[in-house]
Amino acid sequence: MQRLAQEQTSIPAIINLTDRQFKADPFTVYARLRRDRPVAKAKLGSMQTWIVTRYADVVEILKNDRLFVKNYKNAQSLEQQRKRPWMPKIFEALESNMLDQDSPDHGRLRSLVHKAFTPQRVEEMRPRIQQIAEALLISTQQRGRGDLIADFALPLPLTVIVELLGIPSEDRQKFHRWSKYVLSTPTIGNVLLAIPAIMAQMKYLKQLFAKRRNQPQADLLTALVQAEADGDRFSEDELVAMVFLLMLAGHETTVNLLSSGTLALLQNPEQLALLRRSPELIKSAVEELVRFTAPVETATERYAAEDVIVADTKIAKGDLLLVALASANRDPQQFVNPDELDITREKNRHVGFGLGIHYCLGAPLARMEAQIGLQLLFDLRPNLRLTVPAEQLRWRSTAVVRGLQRLPVAW
User: Which parts of the chain span the membrane according to its record (predicted)?
Assistant: First the structure.
């Protein structure tokens, strides 16, 4: 009883979701929350939120887009809206992205982007992804050591999404710098720092849209500009928001999957040896790494459209809530031995890419990049190893996603 009491008191009353120490091992905290406090109070920068941790509750919330909405204006009173953290007016354009919209607006935007971001367009990238990954690994082979993120996990998906969109290669690092501001903890200080970066990116994109209208090319930007369904097109703000979303989701999450996935395999050498002996397991291995490493820790925000009870906890109309995908994917009520990495896991119904109408549009691309990237990495770097103890690795203090700052390795 005394030990149980100590464990309960060790969990803060309000969970800081961007604390670096929490990011290093959120799974221990989530396990205790699932057991004792499945709907807990948390904070994301200056924002107060609920965090939902059990698999069954997470699935219900992700699938119930009537009761748990994405656009705060569809849930909050004017008084609640006035209490929201300050955001510059220029950021309003970014709220036009489909992740922040409910039906029917979400369906309209998703239909338009489907016209451009087709499965065929993604599949056509397979040979190029292979080529990029091989070139990155070969170019750094002689060095003998480096940072896996800077050398491989970042440039691979960043190059892919930049080329897919049709953004000039010399500008790709700008987008990564800009995206860091978007993913930073939402405090007033970080918002102020982000304003110049966001303004620069919006200006850049609008100029690029104009060029594609006058000089169409065989790229995703042109397809987005030209996308039309039932006489409908993207507005300028919707185009900006959509490219922001595609750029952000198109490389940031895959960076984390590649780097955290590599770390997990290095820490589980028997699983790595199994993958090397049986390369046909790469697809199930990637699914397991998505479940196990939580490259996307929480789904993006939702709001209660009315008073609702979740796991015996009342969530009031208009309250902000986040669902912990990282926690749901370690729930023993759903997964056998959830804290063990098992690349042969069957019936792996993880929620790493979400569920429902907001299921990740880029999931097929992320899966392909991870399958190709990880297989090539361990084929071409058979002696890959960490050069620092795992406990010394630092995790980024970011909202929604979970990723390492650096991954020092030798080969």
Answer: 187-205
Q: Which long-range contacts (CB under 8 A, 24 or more apart) does 108-112 make?
A: 108/229, 108/232, 109/234, 109/238, 109/242, 110/357, 110/361, 111/229, 112/224, 112/227, 112/228, 112/229, 112/232, 112/233, 112/234
Taking only the tens place, the pLDDT of each residue in 108-142 is 888 888 878 888 888 999 999 999 999 999 999 99
CA dist., res. 45 & res. 22, Å (int):
14
Tokens 């860091």 -> residue: 180
Reply yes or no: is the peptide bond before residue 104 cis, omega within 30 of 0: yes
CB proximity list for 211: less than 8 A, separation 6 or greater = none
Is 329's pLDDT higher than 80?
yes
User: Which of 185 and 256 is assigned the larger pLDDT?
Assistant: 256
Helix (H), strand (E) at residue 37: none
In the numeric block, the tokens 């699932």 are attached to: 34
What is the H or E stretch that residue 238 is in? helix 236-267
Q: What is the CATH number of domain 2-410?
A: 1.10.630.10
The H-or-E segment that residue 237 falls in is: helix 236-267
Measured CA to CA, the distance from residue 186 to residue 181 in angstroms comes to 9
For 83, which DSSP code?
T
Task: Report residue 4's pLDDT band, with 50, 70 and 90 as the boundaries.
Answer: very low
155 and 163 Cβ atoms separated by less than 8 Å: no
What is the Cα 237 distance to its own chain's centre?
22
Alpha carbon 403 to its chain's center:
10
d(CA 289, CA 257): 7
- The residues spanned by each domain of the chain are 2-410
Tell me phi and psi for residue 40, to 5 degrees. Answer: -120, 155
Torsion sign (Cα): 77, 83, 89, 95: negative
Q: Mean pLDDT over all residues of the chain? A: 89
Q: Which 8-state DSSP code applies to residue 289?
A: H
pLDDT digits (tens, 9 = 90+) for 23-46: 999 999 999 999 999 999 999 877
Euclidean distance between CA atoms 186 and 383, whole angstroms: 40
What sign has the CA pseudo-torsion 238, 244, 249, 254? Answer: positive
